[in-house]
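A quick aside before the break. I want you to see a complete sequence-to-structure record at least once, exactly as it would be stored in a machine-readable document. Don't worry about memorizing anything.
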Amino acid sequence: MARGDLATAFHEAGHVAAAWSRGLKIHSATIDPTPEFRGHTLHANPLRGIRFNLSLARVRDRAESAIVVYLAGPEAQQRHKPRSWRAHHGAADFKQAVDLASRFNGSDEAVRAYLDWLTIVTRDEHEGFQCRVLSAGDARRAPGSGWHDV
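That is the input. The structure line, written in tokens, reads:
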């Protein structure tokens, strides 16, 4: 595995885990680099079919899901190996998160506070997801669990 591929894999896995936890269909995920990106995840758009003139609570809920999915890649990569992180790694993710957050907040200060809060939500969910994965791994090794190591 080439240097950086593991960090990219964690980054993309963060997007996948966040999208999956929100019930979004995962279409694909890859760490095969393109001229623009080292990896890419394609999932169902949580904003599909949403008209921004509908109930603000419903639209905001869907937008928050999208923002958390955007933030989850950088968060997972940083948690995996903090020294692997460079600001440009998540630039596209952060731009999408900021653009979407700006639609619901009037000032730059409100956008920053909203994104700070959603970053905390993302970290908490990542931690919870990581605990579930570890618990499943422990259950697999438990005697009589029916799981078999290959």
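Two observations worth writing down. The longest helix spans residues 108-141. Residues 5-141 form one domain. We'll return to this after the break.
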